[in-house]
Amino acid sequence: MSDALFITASGTDAGKTLVACALAHQARAAGRSVRVLKPVATGFDAADAGASDTAQLLTAAGQPVNADTIAACTPWRFPDPISPDMAAARAGRTIDFDALAGHCRAATGPDHLTLIEGIGGTMVPLTRDRTVRDLIKALDLPAVVVTGSYLGALSHTLTAVESLLMHGIAVRAVVVSESAASPVPLVETCATLAGFIPAPVLAIPRLAPGPRPWEAVPPLTACLAG
After folding, report:
1. CB count in 10 Å sphere of residue 66
2. How many Cα atoms occupy the beta-carbon half-sphere of 206 within 13 Å?
3. Taking the CB of residue 23, how many other CB atoms lie within 10 A of it?
4. With helix as H, strand as E and coil as C, how does 165-190 read?
5. Rounded distance, CA 10 to CA 153, Å?
6. What number of other Cβ atoms are within 10 A of residue 186's Cβ?
7. Burial (CB count within 10 angstroms: exposed 0-12, middle 13-18, buried 19+), residue 33
8. Any residues with CB less than 8 A from the CB of 42 and at least 6 apart, and which?
9. In this structure, are residues 164 and 171 in contact, taking their beta carbons and an 8 Å threshold?
10. How far is CA 42 from CA 146, 154, 166, 207, in A?
11. 28, 56, 113, 119: least surrounded by Cβ within 10 Å?
């Protein structure tokens, strides 16, 4: 049986890359072999690929950052910072959903942990008729849902989680990455979510700026426990 997780979110810029990097770092620290994927990326600047989310994932997984590893981690890269279906159309391309799912499946295996980071929120369109949720379902993987503590995060998070559960997708955990502007303390946001979600709710407080912020993330062990 493959060992893999899909990291998705309640919306854009919730902190998926931070959580995926932290999971890779913590799994490696525990002696596990890790492979990372962010199969689709928009707003990708080829001239500054070393600063991309893909580069951060590769670094956290202990892999070199070069043209080959970037291409393997993120085969579908588009320059416009919009939804993948629109970004692909602007680039004169399309995303083949079956090829996308096949690439993700090929990266999984019983001898390593595969962490797949989605793009945007759970319901972001990948193609004209498929969303990120459809990809998670096609891969039959448990999801980690990342969210913030901003005003509105409770509704966005509960909607995302319910959407996954209604389609038979297991939610391994919800991770609340503290937003810059939070109307209440982080602990209160987590406590409220925990009353509605049948999975662990974990918290990441605001972190000091640094080159490897994932190294300061509190343990996310519940995400890695099958």
Report:
1. 12
2. 10
3. 27
4. HHCCCCEEEEEEECCCCCCCCHHHHH
5. 8
6. 18
7. middle
8. 78, 79, 80, 81, 82, 83, 84, 87, 119
9. yes
10. 19, 26, 28, 25
11. 28
Residue 122 near residue 9 (C-beta atoms within 8 A): yes
- Structure token digits, residue 102: 């096949």
Q: Which residues are catalytic?
A: 38
* Gap between the Cα atoms of 161 and 153, Å rounded: 12
Q: How far apart are the C-alpha atoms of 173 and 142, rounded to whole Å? A: 9
- How many CA within 13 A on the CB side of residue 185? 3
- Cα–Cα distance measured from residue 110 to residue 158, given in angstroms and rounded to the nearest whole number: 32
Using DSSP's 3-state secondary structure scheme, residue 84 falls into: helix
